[in-house]
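Sample entry (377 residues):
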Amino acid sequence: MKRNLLFIDDESEILENYKAFFEEHMDREKRQNKGLTSQSEFSDNFFVYTCLSGEGGLSLVRKKKDEGDCIHVCFVDLKMSGISGYEVVKSIHEIDPKIEVVVVTAHFDRVIEKIFKSIRHKEKFLYLKKPFHRFEIIQLARNLSEKYFNNEIRNRFISNVSHELKTPLSSILGFYQLIEDSEGISEDGREFLKIIGKNARLMNSLVQDLITSVELNKSEIVLRKDDVEVNEFLRDTYLIAVPIAKEKENINYELSLCSKSENFVIDEPRLRNCLINLINNALKFTEEGQVKVFCKIAKDEVFIGVEDTGIGIEKDKLEYIFEHVSRVENEHHEKPGLGLGLNIAKQIVDAHGGRIEVKSKFGKGSEFTIILPKGHK
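Predicted structure, serialized as tokens:
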């Protein structure tokens, strides 16, 4: 298995040491496996690339991706002349978000925290504290490249299965709609049909979340923006969730539009998907009371929110709710879902240059607010 490693450091002696570590390791493995005829048969088939600057490292990452021979693991020194390690790490995931990144530093400081907070793919970021033993870095390179390949296999599997499920689900939902519009169905038949529709929509939503999650983890989000009227966007999105809201008899599902007509520049399908995820979560975790979709405009920002009187979120769990797989329910409130919705929503809003703010009281309810710049096309 070919494992492409990149080391970025502005000291040539350190880069030579990295090369020596892996050359010695490969020679040792070659001696231990005399019966193997080629390097590609070795379990640790490392290809080591080095760069003396952040600029050179980013150029190589881009070149290898274009060639279809991607870097799998990148080790970046934090303190370098020219582009800092902080800027390099941010830029690497803009070029290829699949790369596993290790920041090499003599001490943990605020810059590490700054990097961690700013990058989208936090699960692909580690730091290695100096000094370290050569076997540590070899083991880390082995484990992270394995993780890279396993993620690729998992994403392909999920993508294939999700798309295979999409076709029959579309047929089920289509025929469900035809039957629902038909006359002569008994009251019991209507109830059974209602259950079919509810579960088909749920399954369709889960499959769509899987597809979106794989797409977002494979590449940086490319937005296709247009000028969109805020109230029209809000009204259309609100109506999509009306059938789900009607199934919750003890909930008032409300819409509060902006006081005046305004346009903002967004990728409409993606942002609608984001808002639908927030609305669906609110409806899912609210048994009685209210779910309200609202909008406010202040200066150059648009505030779109979803407020509910549901179970709320415990204070110690709030910081984790946007992670890749996060579930906010407890043992008394088990709900169907994959825990992907909030992570998807955050990635879409981040790509728009916005943010999501959360207020919640456990047992009282939650309020999620998307804050976006009006922007210019």
